[in-house]
Amino acid sequence: MSESTTETESAAVVEETEATDGPSRVELLEHEGDITADYLEELLEIADLDGDLDMDVEADRATVSVVGAELPQLIGEHGEVLEALQELARLAVYRETGERSRLMLDISGHRASRRASLESLAAEVVTRVRESGEPESLAAMSPFERKVVHDAVAASGLRSESEGVEPKRHVVVLPAS
């Protein structure tokens, strides 16, 4: 075997070893959850609010939920405070890790409830679009809400696209081609 082949093979073994010695993707996401939990615990303490934190990894992203208390002041009328807190939590993760986070934050089950409502809405719109053959535009939605609708529409076999500019960006459900 030539020296260059041996060096190449050695480099491959070192790279493979380094890849397996580092933290796994799940461990990195769990670390994001830990950073977020620390940030939120401090926030809850400063605001004198109650709530327990649940952390998980779902669909290749860290999820943190504040549970056990009704906290409408941390959700906002249309989820805008929740969206802002999620962005602040992502910034806390970035500050500590130097990596962008796709972390998902839920408070008092708001996102889970909203997801169920949006999936129901998407099913109704899909039925109307199939019957009429005409595209249908929905009201303006947050990025989270649009993603839920896009996923539900895709699962039904139709297509959808986002149109407009924030804060009036919305989903249009398109008939089958």
Helix and strand arrangement:
Elements: H1 3-21, H2 25-46, E1 52-58, E2 61-67, H3 80-97, E3 104-107, H4 110-132, E4 136-140, H5 143-156, E5 159-163, E6 170-174
Parallel strand pairs: 2-3
Antiparallel strand pairs: 1-2, 4-6, 5-6
Helix pairs in contact: 2-3, 4-5
Strand content: 15-25%
Provide the CATH top-level class of the largest domain.
Answer: Alpha Beta
Radius of gyration: 22 Å
Spatial separation of the terminal alpha carbons: 58 Å
Structural class: alpha+beta
How many beta strands in the DSSP annotation? Answer: 6
- Count the helices. How many? 5
Residue stretches low in confidence (pLDDT < 50, at least 5 long) are 1-18
Order of helices and strands: HHEEHEHEHEE
Q: How would you describe the overall organization of this protein?
A:
By secondary structure, the protein is an alpha+beta fold. It has helices at 3-21, 25-46, 80-97, 110-132, 143-156; strands at 52-58, 61-67, 104-107, 136-140, 159-163, 170-174. The model is unreliable at 1-18 (pLDDT under 50). A three-stranded mixed β-sheet has the order 1-2-3, sandwiched between helices. Strands 4-6-5 form a three-stranded antiparallel β-sheet, with helices on one face. It is 54% helix and 19% strand. The chain has five helices and six strands; from the N terminus they run H-H-E-E-H-E-H-E-H-E-E. It has two domains: 7-108, GMP Synthetase, Chain A, domain 3, CATH 3.30.300.20; 113-174, 2-Layer Sandwich (Ribosomal Protein S8, Chain: A, domain 1). Helix 2 packs across helix 3 (80-97) and helix 4 crosses helix 5 (143-156).
